[in-house]
């Protein structure tokens, strides 16, 4: 059976994942393997006076205990963002003289069993001298706040600004109407169902091998080898098998990844660390965590004149690998979306607090920017008496205005935003809302409707992508790529791209990922970039294969050869050669590496965009809400596998909805994490989803990549946060509410005088 | 302590600490790693197995308590070449993404069929999935898969 692109081909991954044959990191076992566990700080901010490990070493089964003194020779986990400024916030593998958040690692215990490792950790005695902590943005920027990094002038480490402040100030002063909102975007936990784990191995000749669930092995190896372990890259191999969800969070190096390697080298045995859910809540990078003051200036007819946003972005205790980039380089330039806005100013302050470091989480800055703009525009519509659809239609860029430079460094290339908006209204049965609202009112419920028009910048990373192919003598094709599926289904999607280009069955193809020994280059998965860049590499590799095969076949068949349907055909005779025949005649000659992008030739990003419409029914007696209808229309460019795209949309909406109504990481004033388990931190369950999601696309192919794709992995989350909250605000007749909109908050608002 | 377990029709004698949880013995002692651990607090259902046909979170049960029972793990349903109708339905409905919660979801689907038969509605399945967490799919396709999987089980038995 042949499969092409554009078809909802069932996934090749599923047979193994459905039968227990998946291989996640903790599934790995090795003979003689030891188990590691991390002793974590119970304090948000404290000086370490002393650590006594003697009792731990007496615990039966404990093999070794490492503290900072043992691993001080390794480098800290690097912050890779240039704007982190003058003040460095190095996060060493284990805390030295100071801990800076609850969960900061203090000691690493290695034992023959998991239980012995835990018992050993409990037997360690650490003397702490508690220091005053700053557990919120407000506390961190207060005058005379205790400083987390003494060498810094304050806890606000950097300011970043784009746009035209003078023009914005002038427009705000003159505008007929200015809408102002203070907007909080709650701190959330990415919460992959598979908690992080790492298996470290060491061989005197081959060096280190780390097995862990990552979002790309190549970039992780670069930093781990050069910066942390301080060995040549070829002395480190990283392997990623199946990954149980990542959402940005698994892009990064965590201390345990180096600690298992250190222990494996010291002890001469494999060492595995598997986090528990409480480790995940404390130490997986968190997302969002910001507060903004936003103002939208409009003329008397509701045309936008200017947008001003000032954000305090909570970075956590250490500037994480990409942490300072999220609200700035990653998401700060898309502020204002695809509206016609003559002047924009976006100012971001990066603030450290005694909390878990904050980094990329599904959308990484793009949802945050869209959330601010979409809250503002609906508030403005309400204030000046326009429909939320009308104000958007009035201000959305039209196709005739594209390409459009947004004044913040981005140029929107292609799309038909007004048409997407109109189609979304039809799909959502916009006209039927008043009747549904009346019916809900008759049942004592308040129905609200919210809209969001989002645009994402996708594939912005410039790292090069290669594809490397091997053709076996039986004709089977194995292609290695430099991105990493975390559940998206890349083996299927890349396989479809390759199968379609070559005209061979998908069953003949195997896509390989996650091993630096097979593919040492690649930017991994993030920013919805895999299909745009990785797909380009796959196509290039397919074309190069056909060229090599054609040359070999022409030599063998003695004349011109055409390729089609998986066969090299001699022109003028009926002689043919298959991939299997060519590969067995010329072993290795069909194999090769193709390079799609290079460091020098960064392709332009893509701009997936779309319109979400949510309807939410609020029970004023209980404050409980139900999302009763959800519809969206997206422009994703070309779809490789519509079924996989829809799956990304469903999951993305669930995460956006979760942030909007359920999820919240809470610290008390002392910096204690109050939401450290699924008993305190709610992620959506099945009955919290809308009963159905009506999803359509209205696509304009992206001109920036040969497949014409735009990327869809983050879009659902970006649209869901504002559309759901806007619907709730509508149900409250315009009363503003911050995320998470819990029943208690909503009951109070619904029943306030 | 010595425990005799019957798992997927096979007898196993294991020597494990008395406090060992069933999920720990399945994964660490017997290398049946299809059963997953997703939380420390019995909330996520990734560790669901069938004990005498009833779905149980195997992190809530001591291995010793399972002695004498017939245990079915995800490895004991279908094979990649011949999926169980419930597994097949998850594949066809795109009811899984990262696959980590999936074994527990398949077991939850079988439990719903045990309790309610093979003719299910999306509303019922949505309600019955209260004990299982998924972070990738948004559940809609899982619900669809379980409804279809139940119908597939009826067809297979017809």
Layout of SSEs?
The complex is a heterodimer of chains A (753) and B (158).
Chain A (H helix, E strand, L loop, with lengths): L13 H5 L15 E7 L5 E7 L1 H5 L3 E6 H4 L26 E2 L5 E7 L2 H9 L2 E6 L6 H5 L14 E8 L1 H10 L2 E12 L8 E7 L3 E6 L4 H13 L6 E4 L15 H13 L3 E4 L2 H7 L3 E12 L5 E13 L9 H5 L12 E10 L13 H19 L3 H8 L8 E2 L5 E2 L4 H11 L5 H10 L3 E10 L10 E6 L5 E5 L8 H13 L6 E4 L17 H28 L3 E4 L2 E4 L5 E3 H7 L6 E4 L13 E10 L6 E11 L6 H20 L32 E4 L17 H17 L11 H9 L2
Parallel strand pairs in A: 1-12, 10-11, 14-15, 20-21, 27-28
Antiparallel strand pairs in A: 1-5, 2-4, 2-6, 3-5, 7-15, 8-13, 9-10, 9-12, 13-14, 16-17, 18-26, 19-20, 19-25, 22-23, 23-24, 26-27
Helix pairs in contact in A: 11-12, 11-19, 15-16, 18-19
Chain B lengths: L1 E6 L2 E6 L6 H8 L18 E4 L2 E4 L12 E3 L12 H8 L9 H15 L5 H7 L11 H18 L1
Parallel strand pairs in B: 1-5
Antiparallel strand pairs in B: 1-2, 3-4, 3-5
Helix pairs in contact in B: 2-5, 3-5
CATH topology of the largest domain in chain B: Ubiquitin-like (UB roll)
Given helix and strand content, the structural type of chain A is alpha+beta
Output the CATH homologous superfamily of the largest domain in chain A: Aldehyde oxidase/xanthine dehydrogenase, molybdopterin binding domain
- Secondary structure: number of strands of chain A: 28
Radius of gyration of chain B: 15 Å
Beta strand count of chain B: 5
Number of helical runs of chain A? 20
Rg of chain A (CA only): 27 Å
Largest interface comes to:
A-B, 60 and 59 residues
Proportion of residues in β-strands of chain A = 15-25%
Under the CATH scheme, the architecture of the largest domain in chain A is 2-Layer Sandwich
Mean pLDDT of chain A: 96
| N-to-C SSE string of chain B, H for helix and E for strand | EEHEEEHHHH
Top CATH class of the largest domain in chain A:
Alpha Beta
Mind telling me the CATH superfamily name of the largest domain in chain B?
Beta-grasp domain
Output the structural class of chain B. alpha+beta
Tell me the number of helical segments of chain B per DSSP (H or I, 4 or more residues long): 5
